[in-house]
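Dear all,

This email documents one entry for the complex benchmark we are building for the journal club exercise. For each entry we list the sequence lines for every component of the assembly. Then comes the predicted three-dimensional structure of the complex as a token string, followed by one or two observations. Please use this as the template for your own entries, and keep the labels exactly as they appear.
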Amino acid sequence: MTREETSIRTWLLHALVVAALFALNFVLPDYHHGVLARVMVLAVFAMGYNLLFGYVGLLSLGHAMFFAAGLYGAGLPMVHLGWGAGAGFATGLAAGLALSLAIGFLALRTTGVAFMIVTMMFSQVVYLLTFYFGSWTRGDEGLVIQQAERRLSFAGFDLDLTSPATRYMAALILFAVVLALTLAIVRSSFGRVLVAIRENEERTRMLGFDVFAGKLAATVVSGTICAAAGAAYAILFGYVGASFASVQYSILPLLWVLLGGAATTLGPLLGTLLMYYLIDGSGDLLKAWLPGWNVSHLGIVGLALVVLVLFFPRGILGTIRGRWVRWLP
Amino acid sequence: MAAVTPLLTTTDLCKAFGGLRAVDHVDFSVAPGEVRAVIGPNGAGKTTFVSLVCGRIAPTSGTIVFDGRDITAMPAHERVRAGIAYTFQITSVFPNLTAFDNVALPVQRTLADGRGSGRLRDGVMAALSRTGLAARAGTPAGALSYGHQRLLEVAMGLALKPRLLILDEPTQGLSDGEIDSFVGLVREIARDATVLLIEHNMPVVMALADRITVLDAGKVLAEGTPDEIRANAQVQAAYLGTEAA
């Protein structure tokens, strides 16, 4: 198969996935329709995480701070200054970009376990800041963005982002844009350098690449994508709370990516979708099968993580690529 | 020789690891277009010396001048862009990437620097063809034979379009037949680049080198043409362990 054929096949596959998500808008029952809109936004979070973890091989335990940067960057001006959804989304992106640039500059001086700890600590700082500025953020209780604010007006259109179909389409557009962006990045020469850094940093340096600059660029793109997910979450679902900055939201994207397949473009969507339904469905099953045990969904998350790392280190799509479909990006 | 400006000069170069002086006050220069071999017993400091030249490690003291510029404090990746390429002693290709992608990395580097021209694909295939690997472009590097991995390593060095190519024990682990074609390849490379060759295999050194520098215990023991070095009593002593006459 030539490179051109692979290229056409790859873009076609991704277009089909987006088309399928578009079609599902019209057939899904209400509950699952709402879930899928949420999953698409969270999958954007996972795609941002995957760029750094999957392709550059940097395991961050602090990506909740970038999601939170987008969430609060969009939510705070909308609640306190009465800004519109478009301006809120833009400030959310800007907050994520600035934060990831600063964090990348500091944390990338470390590698391996030290990098995990440093990113986790910075993320805890962001989490605690949401309480420190509780008079604006209302901490754990969080802020609710009023329906009237969650509208997008441009060129004579006035879109109500709280209506299910519009919300679903907004989530799908964001998802499709970020999916196309990650696909373009990983197939570009920049993507090749990122993978080279993951495989052998010293060799990459000795081929004339500034490894620090490459990692920093990847951190900023990754952080900004996660912030886009956070901003979209605030706008589409109208809630901005400190729990999204907690360590749990740093672990979840890692889990979604591991489940779907690290360093695969479609893995984050698959992982997020399956894990969402696993946690969603486990509550009832646990009550039925283990009455009185009182196992929380976090137990399920932990168990899933252990099973994945032990038996499927490459995730679902990573295993499929390794065994059958080699051209999968 | 004196009339030519050297491509690379080191002055009073030292590297100490704790109490060990791995490179000890080395004054060294290479003329453009030369093939220079650096030989010496195990532990003589050969790899440490070229690591200082290419910037993988920083010197304790001394200066390195490349093409008239002081590069002593320049980071390694910038030295590569300035034209110093290093091929690793221990094969260091990217095993999970195809041979094509391995070579695409250095080619895209030269394109980004404005030192290369044409399409990425043409540049990659040219480097693979020169090393006889064109037919294996789509093979993951880790699945290539050891000899082919060594050649891929050289192809990556070549693709950087270096002015100084440092080959660190390139024939280690190759069969006799592979060594013969390798000698031919280095001769061809030397037509447009200066080559610094660290090598244990004496027939290869004698066949390729214009001049030889002998290191022993971090110091330059001798320097000269292959014939001069072969006749040098001190060199024989360092290699054979006998008392110098």
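Observations: Residues 99-113 of chain B form the longest helix (15 residues). The radius of gyration of chain B is 18 Å.
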